# Entry
Amino acid sequence: MVLAFESTNDFHDSSNAVATVIYTQSLKPAQAMVWSGLMNFIGEWFARSVNGWANNT
# Structure
């Protein structure tokens, strides 16, 4: 249940972050989407790595 919440919460957080970056014109929309996808991938990978490490200790 927690994993489902975190996954859906990440989608909402990333959409808000992308909208803010596009609205302030800090990045172009395509750049904002690429950065968002890349950072979400890294975040999920890191979270799963830490979880796997914690379960093995």
